[in-house]
Write a structure and sequence with these properties.
The protein is an all-alpha fold. It has two domains: about 5-75; about 80-120, no CATH class. The protein contains eight helices and no strands. Helix 1 packs parallel to helix 3.
């Protein structure tokens, strides 16, 4: 999460586009609390830059605009399915490794980190083999030679 000082720097940059307007503590607190928790300072600064580069209405950039721009930038940086497929082929990954690699890439991790994760993590899709159940040789009901052959009295406890 961005610190309050970093949020203040972003807010000052936004206000610099509008005659260096001053912000107060309440405005900073609100702006800081509305920003995405996973945003970096670099992403936020780039988002403000892109907002004002495309802004022809004179509208002020708000925390929602910064959040939306960061989300858009992250989505644009994700590789396509075809590109991920080519990367998996080039790396010679198995089906399970390819699945894990693709998942890591779509989460936003780089090729190197995704490859390391795919090759070192155990497959979460694989389940251990089922263990056979032990069969009991003791009859459930006294006097029964075969299942279903016990008398009603022995089942009800001598009634």
């Amino acid at each position: 999460m961005l610190s309050k000082g970093e949020a203040a720097a972003i807010l000052s940059l936004i206000n610099s586009h509008h005659g260096n307007a001053q912000w107060d503590d309440i405005q900073l607190e609100a702006f800081h609390s509305e920003l995405r928790a996973d945003m970096t300072l670099g992403e936020a600064l780039e988002a403000v830059k892109r907002f004002y580069a495309a802004n022809d209405s004179g509208r002020w950039c708000g925390s929602g605009d910064v959040n939306a721009m960061v989300r858009r930038m992250r989505n644009e940086s994700k590789p396509s399915e075809a590109q991920i497929g080519r990367e998996c082929e080039r790396l010679g990954l198995s089906e399970d490794e390819s699945w894990m690699y693709r998942r890591q890439r779509m989460l936003g991790n780089g090729p190197e980190q995704s490859q390391q994760t795919a090759l070192t993590q155990r497959s979460t899709l694989g389940l251990p083999a089922a263990k056979p159940k032990k069969r009991s040789t003791v009859s459930r009901f006294a006097g029964a030679s075969r299942p279903g052959m016990a008398s009603l009295g022995s089942m009800l406890g001598g009634a």
